[in-house]
């Protein structure tokens, strides 16, 4: 037995350690070192070029750190904890399994902190009050299974680790971490963000790994027929696309070259199978800044991210601790630089010094969620963790095939990309457009980071682009060639909201100045109000929905994330404005006038197959500053 393994196995409460196995590895890494708590991600004690020693650092990042991005979070004081590694050993998986304690960890007084009935009520309120009022596309609300144990924390996590290493397959990381007061063990399927440096070129690749869609293996055993039916489920598909959109926003902030979508792929585990994408781009940012700009995964928060944090704060009863945060391993690669590997803290059990055990589980709530089904999903996820930990007896499952290799599965996966924007499915290179190249644009951020994707696409056309928060926009922006009033959550008629009121002022001032304006989503609705069109709430929100449209004579497949719509009743009330609207409902999808254009959909979304072309057309129209000369028209969708 190695020295460090022996010390870990006989650790007392004051001996910190981490044990982790990476996906597919036949070895396990053990770490110990000094525990250092810091205030912010920038304070994580990484070495610099002048240091004699650059330590490896494993950091436990709690959910409350999202406040570093200015987002809401209940503060439970969970420490941003660093294990500054002083010793590391690598041991074979077989030896670790042989040596880890096989003892059971008895739990008593177990149950959910939020009852089934109360959780179902929360689901209904989120659908009606948040999604139904335009606050976002999807939100993840958690509850926790809690219990107590008399087994010391440092021993409990090692026993849980053995059960996970023996019984769980397909995890990205399987791990146990013990520090005084904070101990955890889990098998997370999902890498949130990683940064790797190419040794020959020095290029730093950022990778994110959105996973959404959970296929629970039937007791009879999973079959190709079962899985193909799952792949055809609209709700599961839309959930995955929405989280890809949200993580592409992050990639566009972090990577100067944007990000490329790879996949979709299948991640098969012992009792669950997920669908996933990989997102890849390059960045020169400090790894700590990459982590800050990507806090946290939409798969465990929701979208848009800022509003998702507010919704979580309104509807969850207590703070999250480390749930939906990350474990972040910073590994030095020389010259003061570090690589980063940061899986999401899900499928994880926590135990503190008092013996309190917590197993958080959340469900993704969307416009067509069924409250009872979401209750069942959280119960199933918690039971899955407890079963994997050996706390609950596993249900016997029949044989399961390699689902990714089943006939028709790869075809079904490839078909998902046929309706997505090819721009995001391939490497992106500048493609200047004559009418746009060399022009300047400012995008007003109305608290939806789709603005980062818009900025990347406009730069693709050769424009010089900056993004300004709505609260920082001044009248000086009248000098910019193109002002893009961006998307955001909320009701465009709610002038009591300072953000919405300011967007009205910005759009109104731009119109009055006769300066080129492009308005997107919320700002399209604001522009419609300025032009005299009524705004109505949709009967069913269009969150993550694709529509085939005729936009001014061009067939376009566009992604939508809206709860409110401008609606045309009879003839257009404003002369000289060209309107593309649904012939039956009157829903206004786009407008063009002298020096302005607008669109309800998100042209930058991965769901907008024809979005790049349409963005170039509308931006070009606004910059041309000439009306079409046609009277208002209704274009059927």
UniProtKB/TrEMBL annotation:
<dbReference type="InterPro" id="IPR019999">
    <property type="entry name" value="Anth_synth_I-like"/>
</dbReference>
<dbReference type="Pfam" id="PF00425">
    <property type="entry name" value="Chorismate_bind"/>
</dbReference>
<feature type="domain" description="Chorismate-utilising enzyme C-terminal">
    <location>
        <begin position="116"/>
        <end position="381"/>
    </location>
</feature>
<dbReference type="Pfam" id="PF00117">
    <property type="entry name" value="GATase"/>
</dbReference>
<dbReference type="InterPro" id="IPR029062">
    <property type="entry name" value="Class_I_gatase-like"/>
</dbReference>
<dbReference type="InterPro" id="IPR006221">
    <property type="entry name" value="TrpG/PapA_dom"/>
</dbReference>
<dbReference type="InterPro" id="IPR015890">
    <property type="entry name" value="Chorismate_C"/>
</dbReference>
<protein>
    <recommendedName>
        <fullName>anthranilate synthase</fullName>
        <ecNumber>4.1.3.27</ecNumber>
    </recommendedName>
</protein>
<feature type="domain" description="Glutamine amidotransferase">
    <location>
        <begin position="442"/>
        <end position="613"/>
    </location>
</feature>
<dbReference type="InterPro" id="IPR017926">
    <property type="entry name" value="GATASE"/>
</dbReference>
<keyword id="KW-0456">Lyase</keyword>
<dbReference type="InterPro" id="IPR005801">
    <property type="entry name" value="ADC_synthase"/>
</dbReference>
<keyword id="KW-0315">Glutamine amidotransferase</keyword>
